[in-house]
């Protein structure tokens, strides 16, 4: 009863279907018909065989290279290439990481790779009470019965808000592919403050904030977040016919208001969106698209030899909406424009343009000089460089063929997925199949593509372990890319860490890119699958360490305001926590009561967090200094239930407790 | 309406109530009436003030010391005291960590401190699908409606199974304080395989496995896990009278069958259990007890000057049960014996004995030579050393006063919480209030207590950052304690890491203890609050990297076995995953159907894990190589739902997907 396309099955059968990594390499080679570039390769260009032991430690594959940055720029103690942060020293950079199928975001210290924080968003977090407190439920969204609408998620791409071309430390956004949610994190307290479920979208993949407004020069900061969709689905009526009529499934590209966290507009598109990039001038947003064939089976998705980087003219779209040139999907009020190929053939009126790139591309990244989008080939061993001024020229009617916006197509190796930059004109592309990173020069790639055969854009290659995906150098996606550290997110770790059972960690590797050649300096195991990340200097963030009690309307300001009030069977218990006690430390309710506990931590000392655990009632949360949280539940079990402080706070922390007495 | 005891409020008021760390130090000093020992102190004996900046890096407070272990024992490259593990190198030790209020367990590499794995147990884990799959729900426990009974937890103490006095790599256990559950992890696959909710218990705190049978010499391995209770509650009838009658609340100590994960017996006790320790000969289990006063308010809990290490005679208790000398609590069949003070005054028949220790002790740890339990004083600046042979002598009628089992009471500093050992006769005790670790010699402490005033047992002190709790040296709780590395779990990190908002990480510090003086070598930030941990050499574990398909009764062995079957409105969908495809990749159901998806990963390659995400149906889980999992849900929404691989598996991973078509 095979429903899998015959062609794919044949391919799989021919490859033995088990020899994954070898077969992946083989499939890449067969599909693409090209061998990896071999120039300037430090290590072996071949992928590590699936079952073979790891190659020896990197010092052999990555000889020490001269570190050109001044020591103070490096900001760490130790020899060149050392990432050791000695006790009492601080990391020099923040890493902002997506959490993958854990549904959270993570803050790392770089270069040490140490995880400093996990920020829950899509999924409940028992430690802080995310998903238990009334405040977090309001952010996450609930069903009519008050339970959470979703408790699982799959965060992929994370990016921060911009001002004047660098991160302003205000927000980070990360997408939940699983349930099509956009999560916003406020970076002052490093907590999730808004979650938006995108309508009509399934398989929400790439995101990117804009960097300034396309029209108003005074808006030099992020006001939009662009969101791509992967999966084709029926976009309007759902009935027995439409769900089975795959020829009429569709996709949308969504623009979200960054501040309000509401959808501004959506655009009908062809194809499946992979990643999203935005130009530094605010005028263009692009998404790499595979499956422009609009296929629903594996062979159909790969039938065309050319896919696209679809580039949107933001100002034109928003002017069209102002002019009333939009429709709706379903019952909501969101304006929808048409950015499909057929509706956008005239450059003078086109809202979007399809720049041709080889089939099934993956990432798209904007160079820090603002000039180019670089599309990674995935099934093509190339990166395609698109000059953004030429795209604007096309929209202005000054370029006859959009294909001419492609100014380079550089052969980098097998399975190029993502590209980052060092601010010195070089690009670094992950090669999934080769398990390498390729460093190449953008200007030289353009010269070579223009016909200068004497130029070799490839500067260096280095083995990484293994199968790299995302890559990002220090503030590479800002105008201040400095080319000091580079993180590489490897999808497989295999034998790089002590064995921990069948589920392996992934391997986030750190490379020193200050020299001509890359140097591998650190392996960090990570719980899968933190797709994407950005790294930037610590001076760009200034988080607050203690809350402002006035930000919490329910705050219980002192022991005098604490106590129990009853309204029918609704009981409100106001509690203050101060090390090492709660006030009150005992209260009585009756079975059947609806109990709301409001808890304020009135301690002011930094790091003096208290917890509240209520046994057998499945309730637990933390309150940080000056913070207030609340929970509501039904007292459905009689007995004595000791609430206790779950977060070590004092020498008498164990004694910090109180009783909820539930009378039958 | 203050319900807090007046005495405590007065104390708090006098202390200003805000200046936590200072007040904690002051409270300790006031209560105990003793100053910290100042001998041999490397750094300042005073706790770091709450608001002051951190002291300079440890090199100043911990001068370099001669490393006496041979380099090959150290197993890492770098200078003395370096923890840097270069790319391609492996850590030398496993760290098995409790996860705290995240409800999981964690595997770390030591000395790098890198987190290799998180093992969900008490709480759902969206990444692996723990709490979503039918298999994990069966382990976690469900309510009659099929939803999970508990979704939050608070894991505290983690210990591994023993054979011949060392870890055998079979199991680890960790307790959930919040919902009184004992979680067992099988260490071959590093997954939770059993969870037991302890009856009658609230505030389940310390645990420890036994190390051999007290009677049968052939049973030289763990067969019991001992579990302490903190919170006094009504143990039998729950009615309006008993819940308010705090004078008649009680506690039990529980013995669990390590293999069956069933309660073997329970013992009525006085007081609140903190930690648990077991003797290497299997004969004794001990628990440090505070609140032997059985108070329910803060001042009452601290009224007595003396509390206890309660030590159980395991063989006697089990013989008593064989002899039918037990009762029951409530309706279950668990035999319950009486280990309260009044019932155990005659040494010849006593089932347990109360060894007096200063008020409100905290941890209790067994020395690796098998001779002693060391109780840490918490509110007393002392550690109490109990000679286990003398306790056995008391049970045998050969010691007239159990107080004589105390062979030392060494002054270590303010706020001693936990103690570990180096196998060379030295103990290391965390001082919560002093923010230090004190190294002291056990034999010298005994000599001094016996009257030799010329002896000074204190060898070294070192500042740690800040407020340390648990402490463990490499395989310190086995007969092969080797005194190489020592971990210290600090409850506060304050300024040791880049700021990440109000919620600070904790700080697990690593110290080199091979020399006479301790050397602080690494700060690892950790998400709170990983209470306890053990560290042991990597050779003691041998996890399996690929599952055996035969272990899964529902396994779908090949694409030929895949497909859809229907029985009324119950639909079973058998799917195989193999990179980069599912088979089948489309199936239809109708709204209202109960759908069970059974998914087998038929790839055999190590590290080739697939995922399964089902949008808008809130379903996500992983399948490792050769693993099978299942989920059951109601198809309650019509539409097209693309299931997709959530775990990057192949260059065409993004294309690995299929459709569940739900017809209206």
From TrEMBL, chains A, B:
Pathway: Nitrogen metabolism; nitrate reduction (denitrification); dinitrogen from nitrate: step 4/4. This is Nitrous-oxide reductase. It catalyses: N2 + 2 Fe(III)-[cytochrome c] + H2O = nitrous oxide + 2 Fe(II)-[cytochrome c] + 2 H(+). Residues 45-65 are annotated as: Disordered. GO terms for cellular component: membrane; periplasmic space. The keyword Chaperone does not apply. Coiled coil: none annotated. Homodimer. Belongs to the NosZ family. In the C-terminal section; belongs to the cytochrome c oxidase subunit 2 family. Nitrous-oxide reductase is part of a bacterial respiratory system which is activated under anaerobic conditions in the presence of nitrate or nitrous oxide. Its EC number is 1.7.2.4. Residues 568-664 form the Cytochrome oxidase subunit II copper A binding domain. CDD domains: N2OR_C. It is an enzyme of class 1 (oxidoreductase). Keywords: Calcium, Copper, Metal-binding, Oxidoreductase, Periplasm, Signal. Its cofactor is Cu cation; Ca(2+). GO terms for molecular function: calcium ion binding; copper ion binding; cytochrome-c oxidase activity; nitrous-oxide reductase activity. It is found in: Periplasm.
